[in-house]
Structures are given as structure tokens and as C-alpha cells.
Amino acid sequence: MSFASTWMAWYGDDFWESERVASMDDSAALLYAWLLWRQFKRGPLPPPDVLRRLPHRWTSRWDRVWPQVSNCFVVLEDGHMENERCRDIRADAVGRAERASVNGKRGGRPKGSPAKPRANPGLSVSVSQTEPDANPDQSSDRIRHNRTDKDPTGLPPTPTALKRLSPPEADWSEHPTLDSPAMRLAWGTWISHRRELRVKPYTSQGLAQALAKLSELGPDRALLAIQHSIAGNYQGIFEPRNDASRPGANGHAHGGGTSMRALLDAERNGPRPIDVKGERVA
Predict the structure, then answer these.
(1) Per-residue pLDDT band at 173 (split at 50, 70, 90)
(2) N or C: which end of the chain has fewer CB within 10 A?
């Protein structure tokens, strides 16, 4: 896709504050970022043995860095690999690009839509007053249907858009230890907090794993973790940590990783990078 050759959707907080990246060393974290970029640009990654033979800067360190990154990808039936969140973000970006291309060919309007009426100071009566709908109930149903099930362009919604229409709800019957008025209230506040941050709603699997993690903590620690995450403006649920290990302490990012600037400086001073075609980059 041509759009992916110049840009990529990047959520820095989700990446650098994630527990997976926090457990990696600097070289593995940069490899993970490069693999996400390659998947966003080209689609699913090749199998690990093929990926290892590609020209890149991790050839001599592959046996050390790949085990740290491999659990971030799932293996498909044909042997290729992909990161599930990167796949969803890419699918959404492809859908947006395709709709923009179609609308551009139509002059910026969905096919068949009338041109915008010119302003006429002498006309004060709206179309709905001069031509009322024969059945107002059906008209309102049609408006609600268009708002929820269709994109304003008139094209079918993308799979990501459909997920946003009906996010899954917590099933407290599977976690009876958490089922209390205080936890229900805290969870509702947490969902509202994520919505204000414009974070993607939980998928069914993500919701199940989040509740399972809270269930392992127990009701008291789970409530404290939710309150701490809301107060810290986090996108994920984290328990409070000591000052010595909290994210950002002593100039480090999330429990021992170096800052973004230090990581880039270290890589810049290292060997000259090689692109995916095997050519040296100046």
C-alpha cells in the first residue's frame, strides 16, 4: 500500500509503557519496533527462519533478541506471523485510505449524493417542512440505522468500526470474587476513562484477559490498581510501584529501559543501518 510507505500509526505510550517492552533490552525493543513497521507496510511477516536471513542489523544478535520479541506475534496457518493490534490498525488505515480515494474520485461526495444547496436569503422554509416524510417513525429508524451501521461516505463499515459499535461488556459471573458494587462502579469509571483518552475499546479476548488479571490480584488489589491507573492517566491497568521501580525513575522508562533519545543515540553511533533490500543507508 502506498500510504504505508510514508507513515505509520504509532501509539508511543502503549509501546514504551507496555510490560512486554519493559522486559526487553534496547536492541530487542528496536527490533520489535522495526517488525511492527514492516508488518504495517507489507502485511504479515515471513516465518522466523526467513526473517532471520533478511539483511538487518540484528543478524549477529538474533539468538539473543528474537526470543524476547517472538511472543509479541502469533503464527498464522501458512507460517507467517503478525501482531494482532498492528493488523487491526493497518486494516483501519487501509479502509480509510480506500474510502478517501473513492470519495476523491467522486468529488468529495458519496456517489449519488446531491450537491450542497446554495444559500438563498429569500428561502426560509426547510426541505423537511415543505416535503414531510410520509411515515416519521420509519424516517427516524432509517436515520438511526445510517448513523450506526454505515459510514457517512455510504460505504460499508470496516471490521474495526463494527467492533466499536458494540464493545463487549464485563461478565461478572465468571469472576465472582470481583462482583461487588464497588468493583462495578470502579470498572465503569475505568471504561469511561479509556473512552475519554480515545483508547480502542476492549476486544472480547482483551476484556477476558483484563478481568482474569484483576481476579488474580483479588478484590482489594484490583480496586487499588484501577484507581491508581485512572489517577496516573494510564491506558492499561497497573498496580502502584515503589519510587525506585516506577516508570520514568532515574531517567529510565518503565523499569529499567533507557529513554527514547538514549536508544536512538546508541543505535546512531552503532553500525550503519541496512534497509530491507540489503543496501547501505547513508
Answers:
(1) confident
(2) C
